Amino acid sequence: MAGEPQDDCLFCKIVAGHIPATIVRETETTVAFRDINPQAPTHVLVIPKAHYENAAALGAGAPQLAADVLAETQAVADEEKLDSYRVVFNTGSGAGQTVWHAHAHVLGGRGLQWPPG
Questions:
Q1: 96-104 average pLDDT score
Q2: Three-state DSSP class for 44?
Q3: Phi and psi based region of residue 19 (left: phi greater than 0; alpha: psi -120 to 50; beta: remaining)
Q4: What's the pLDDT at 2?
């Protein structure tokens, strides 16, 4: 069920404290932590604490929570002192989603070309 923790979800396990992560920010509704395979000098994931499969499900099922995630991307960028940064939501395997829990990538600290990969 949307919003409920999933036993087989890596990010739900991070939210629950069962798997360690380098947490950089936490709010009542979100957690931000460093990506274990960074693609830029700053690469932080911002996730909702509630489980939604992807950004589309999050936006449709919990628009205020989606707004919380987006607001936290700015807070991460501010704390990391990023003047320029990219926020990416991969939705679906064809777009590169590998963890089926909505998450925003905050990438910065180097030039980011367009279009991406």
A1: 96
A2: strand
A3: beta
A4: 76
Q: Which of 101, 97, 93 is nearest to 15 (CA)?
A: 101
116 in a domain, yes or no?
A: no
Is 51 part of the annotated catalytic residue set?
A: no
Q: Which helix (H) or strand (E) holds 61?
A: helix 55-61
Catalytic-labelled residue, pool 51, 101, 103, 105: 103
Cβ burial of 18 (10 Å; 0-12, 13-18, 19+) is exposed
- DSSP β-bridge partners for residue 85: 108
Is 14 among the domain residues? yes
Residue 29 burial (CB count, 10 A): 17
Total structural domains within the chain: 1
Comparing 12 with 3, which gets the higher pLDDT?
12
